[in-house]
Amino acid sequence: MAKVEIAPLRGWDDFYPGSDRFGKPDTRDLAKWNNRVVSNLLYYQTNYLVVAILVFLVVGFLNPVSMFTGAVVVASVFIGSVWAGENKAIIKKFKKENPSLFVFLVMVVSYFLMSLFGGVMVFLLGIKLPLLLIFAHASLRLRNIKNKLENKMESAGLKKSPMGIILEALGQQEENFNKIQDFLESKLKE
Description:
Layout: H1 12-15, H2 30-43, H3 45-62, H4 64-87, H5 89-97, H6 99-117, H7 120-140, H8 145-155, H9 162-169, H10 174-189
């Protein structure tokens, strides 16, 4: 088992180099789009963390009590969903068969609970806005060779990162690992 490593902060010219390294995802091929998003989440995870913290701090500065409440609710729902996904067979099966729907449901439950406590707009701005920005970048940013190599190392278990652990907990890594494992097995047979 590899030790957990923090990914380096990617330079601005790599993170946002211009329109030539961005492209519209193929919405007809959801597996390819998902692979691009997961790959970019792994490669740019430190940059995404910085973006999320900056947005979180700006919104939190404007309304700290609602932001704290939102953070507690989202963290509780996330921890509860991961625990249930590991310890309850029916949820574990659902998460394995529908990983994207599982993530969506975690977000919907978070939103519902926040609406009960009030402060939905602060929640949307402070927590969902960074997620939306990150998802937009990860969907539109084309991968490069270094990105693909880092993703392969993470999926093969040669490297472990915080984003890799989160994606694995949400069921987003299993497909990539199985594809790589099948690829490696086919190469070994040749």
